[in-house]
Amino acid sequence: MQFENMREFVVLADTCNYMVAAEELYISQSTLSKHIKEMEHELGIQLFNRSTRKVELTEFGMLFLPYAKDAVKLQDKYTAAASQYLERLKNTISIGTLKNWRETEMAKLTSEFQMRYKDIRVNLLNGESEDLSDMLDSNLCDFIFFREENCESKNGLVKIPFQKDALTACMPKNHHLAGCKSIKLEDLKEESLLLSEKTSLSYKIGTKACREAGFEPNIFFMGNRAHTLSYLSKGLGIALVFGSSFIKPLEADMVAIPIEQPIYSYVNLVYKKDELNEAKNCFLNFIEEYTTDGKPD
Fold first, then answer.
1. pLDDT at residue 85 above 80?
2. Going along the chain, which residue ranges are E strands?
3. Which helix (H) or strand (E) holds 34?
4. Residue 260: C-alpha distances to residues 92, 181, 272 (Å)
5. What burial class does residue 272 get, using C-beta atoms within 10 Å of its C-beta: 0-12 exposed, 13-18 middle, 19+ buried?
């Protein structure tokens, strides 16, 4: 049985007049009459006594009315709940960030945004590069902070440069190259290298740069951040990564040496061009101010 028919029954029962009920419901009298007959057919019993000019409830109609009113109230409640939920969704933005990337900076950025826009909720999600791309495609994220080789916007995506990192060699302070202000990639020809996963941008750009410098990289290990840091702390190789913040947990014993003729990657804020609402525009305006102030490194 349709809930709207139930509502029409309640209004007609309260007014006892087809014309008045139809006007209140913004439907025609013939439509109202049709819906009431459909209900009676479905229930298998008459709801109204139409023998007089005034429409009156039958005995069963009077018995049925309280339940119909309860059903209408329940519909009103869940409709209101659904409306409130959808309204909250409009005021919620989901942001995907790279795992282990600038946690402190992202916490600060999110905190400042929420202080300014108290009615907008933020959901932060972490993932690897390929995960973030899929999350944006499937609308699980409204924005992602994504590491790429350039800042070129294409395929319906907009990219705002947020951070630029240079390829860096991280090594223990007692390494024979640790005292250099900068090094050439050729200096790493005989070194054991620690690299991120094969799918990562630092792996792809790092190995490509080594080959362009004339040698095949001697890869001791490639994998996640925790294992790379562990091997690095034991002096088992040099980590080739973007940015010096990678070694922050070990910075007392490590140094980050820049590569001559810098090779850069960019962390861009990426979003779909045609899917903006007021909350998303607020975040973009905030990011514009945030980056203009020069807060990201």
1. no
2. 48-49, 56-57, 92-98, 121-127, 143-148, 157-172, 193-195, 219-222, 238-242, 254-258, 264-272
3. helix 29-43
4. 44, 9, 36
5. middle
Query: Rounded to whole angstroms, how far apart are CA atoms 194 and 188?
Result: 11
pLDDT of residue 1: 66
Instruction: Categorize the per-residue pLDDT at 297 as very low, low, confident or very high, splitting at 50, 70 and 90.
Output: very low
Enter the tokens of residue 183. Answer: 């090094």
Domains, the chain, with CATH or none? 3-88 (1.10.10.10), 90-162+266-292 (3.40.190.10), 165-264 (3.40.190.10)
Residue (of 50, 117, 70, 128) closest to 90 by Cα position = 117
* Alpha helices (H) along 234-292: 278-292
pLDDT computed for residue 261 by the predictor: 87
Buried/exposed code over 10-33 (b: 16+ C-beta within 10 A; e: otherwise): bbbbebebbeebbeebeeeeeebb
Query: Which residues touch 284 (CB under 8 Å, ≥6 apart)?
Result: 160, 271, 276
Structure tokens at 54: 């005034």
Highest mean pLDDT among 49-63, 89-103, 202-216, 275-289: 202-216
Q: Which residues pair with 161 in a beta bridge?
A: 268
3-class DSSP state for residue 101? coil
Cα(113)–Cα(226) distance, rounded to whole angstroms?
30
In angstroms, the CA 65 to CA 236 distance is 80
Tokens encoding 165: 């990192």
Q: How far is CA 97 from CA 37, 73, 157, in A?
A: 58, 43, 17
Q: What is the DSSP letter of 78?
A: H
Beta carbons within 10 angstroms of residue 140's beta carbon: 16
Predicted confidence (pLDDT) per residue in 11-55, tens digit: 999 888 888 999 988 899 999 999 999 999 999 999 998 765 678
